[in-house]
Design brief:
By secondary structure, the protein is mainly alpha-helical. It has one domain. It contains eight helices and two strands, in the order H-H-H-H-E-E-H-H-H-H. Helix 6 crosses helix 8. The longest helix is centred in the middle third of the chain and has 27 residues. The termini are far apart.
């Protein structure tokens, strides 16, 4: 994550939480570029001629964020974690609609985190990843949350540790175990 003005962002998030409308308005210019980078990260390996663009994904996620009643932001990292969770929901909904309309052709895909990719870099079906993450949440909710924060929010190990309130070493172990578990689950799932 870029660290342009974390103290200013955190201050605005606290103001927003306190109900200051001006704080939510002032926040967008400070976080927009980072949200756009995050959206671009998710969309760069989509199928050709994908109609959802980074700006549209950011706008939809931000509208959903603003629509929440007095969110309980804890920090800048927490804000981006929630934004990533919303982007995940938007992408999965979009992929499910596309799959339903095309009966499986041209399924939306994302590449698993380039920096810590699985042994062989693969494109992953967003719906399959969401299904696997939901299954992982049943088995180990903490590992599922680590993946969501690392992959969808793009948080570092340290930022994930901060958001979750656990040791960085624990985040690293969970991240490694969860990636292996997800790889196995996604590899086993039938493609439609």
């Amino acid at each position: 994550m870029a660290h342009e003005a974390p103290s200013e962002v955190t201050k605005l998030l606290q103001g927003w939480r306190a109900g200051e409308r001006s704080a939510s308005d002032a926040l967008l210019p400070l976080v927009y570029d980072e949200l756009r980078r995050l959206a671009h990260h998710h969309l760069r390996n989509e199928r050709p001629h994908h109609t959802l663009q980074s700006a549209a994904l950011v706008n939809e996620a931000y509208l959903r964020l603003v629509g929440q009643n007095l969110p309980k932001w804890e920090s800048r990292a927490h804000f981006f974690a929630i934004a990533a969770q919303l982007m995940r929901q938007i992408l999965v909904d979009y992929a499910r609609r596309h799959r339903a309309s095309k009966r499986g052709s041209g399924v939306c895909t994302l590449a698993l985190d380039d920096a810590v990719a699985l042994p062989q870099r693969k494109n992953v079906d967003v719906v399959a990843l969401d299904d696997a993450l939901n299954a992982l949440a049943e088995v180990d909710p903490r590992q599922s949350r680590v993946v969501e924060l690392r992959f969808f929010a793009g948080l570092s190990l340290e930022e994930t540790s901060e958001v979750m309130g656990i040791a960085t070493a624990t985040v690293q172990r969970d991240w490694t175990a969860a990636r292996a578990w997800l790889h196995r689950e996604i590899s086993r799932s039938p493609r439609t």
